[in-house]
Amino acid sequence: MEVDGGEGESCHAWLSRSGVTWSPTEEETLRYKATGISHSGVTHYAASRITDLEDSFSFFITEEIIDIIVQQTNRKGERKGGGWKEVDRVELRAYLGLLLLAGVHRSRGEATSSLWDENTGRPIFRATMSLKRFINLSCMIRFDDRLTRQARRLEETDKLAPLRDVWDQWVVRLPLAFNPRENVCVDTQLVGFQGRCSFKQHIPSKPAKYGLKLWALCDVSTSYVWGMQPYLGKPTPGRQQGKRVVLELTEGLSGHTVSTDDFFTSYDLGMELLERKLALVGTVQQNRPELPPQLLDLKGRQVLSSLFAFTPKMTAVSYVPKRGGNMLLLSTKHREAKVSQEQNKMPQIILDYNCCKGVVDNLDKLVEMYSCRRMTRRWPMALFGNILDVSAYNALVLWLEVKPDWNQGKNLRRLFLQELGSCLVRPAMARHLPLTPSAAVMVEAAQRAADQGPAGAEEPRAKRKCHLCRGKRSLFSRSCSKCGQAVCKEHTVSICSACMN
Hints:
The protein has helices at residues 44-47, 53-58, 63-80, 89-104, 112-116, 123-128, 131-140, 164-171, 174-177, 241-249, 267-275, 348-356, 359-369, 379-402, 412-430, 437-452, 497-500; strands spanning 3-4, 14-15, 21-22, 41-42, 178-179, 183-192, 200-202, 210-219, 225-230, 257-260, 279-283, 306-311, 314-319, 327-331.
């Protein structure tokens, strides 16, 4: 073990610029006593309300949120004129289901018209609603009444006013469904957006580069989003934004360890979290005034060496991973100079931090793979698309907590989104006039499922050989709507809706 003790200073206290007194030894450091977590995982409140797959999603996108969107969308459509047909709950849920299904097909960059095309599209889109109606809804969908913002005094004071009602209804549902396990992580999420927005950010380290910045608190073991805040601009002078964000996101937690990066981590934050029975582990910026200058001086330091500093309730460590490099971390959980003999002789603080960092980045990766966000110039729609993505992912976590043996060994996220989208569009399919034979088959199945209830939903048809081209070995999943036998695309005939009757 190579641990520097600060030559000639091992018996003297180290004083930082802010007046914090550090010791190079752990003799006066108090032991950390972790507070036990009473219950982790899905809450009893959520588990009692989730009986099927759609319930887990509806726990976040509630009827109240649906009603807000329905009301404001109809209001916008009536003002626009042009013979607007009012949208209702069933149709709006079907619209959200089609967004999720478009994400399953990873078609964000694909033209919307191609999703409804007879050759390149998918029958479920044509069976749910027309392309014109989908485009109409995408243009008209709103989340508040713009004409009443001034009366509500939200035009100048609240930059999130166009989405505020939906956001507040949604974000309060996140902590009600799930209790995080021991470790949580606070980090930045960037929702890609290229349009005009007063609080759009540029973060070169993120894949999207430009977009809407959000702060998220996630459970380390599942990446469940427990809390989220939007960045709406610079704070008022004199306020530590990183400290405020962490304290607000961790409100209600107790006994957990919070991992943060150097934007959030500070000595004052660690002390306040300890008062709430929370531990802090995170990287820290070198210009923080609470750090002793001895941790910043690399003169004479060897590569892979560690230098510790202690207060009664906090530990700081400086680790040299390479020549000229300096990794600085603060921890209120670790109270001793423990260094691993393996893994480049890293301090235990860094090893524990590495196990918890990157959780929000992992969430971004999972969400981005099957994101339902479409290309848009309106930032409320981009942010609402992220709400749907996060809700769908959280719903999957809840569903697997309630049904741990559901479809083991498969691509669970894709399968979950596909089934969730099908559940959302099924009621609208049951009342939609079919336009093509393939769509008619899906509508007929949806009508039978609506009559029989959720348990009567049909399983996907197995692929079979076309009974008209016996010499070919290809298998096909489509079948004739009259005789029920398997047919290929070459032997499928299109007829108009009038001839179907």
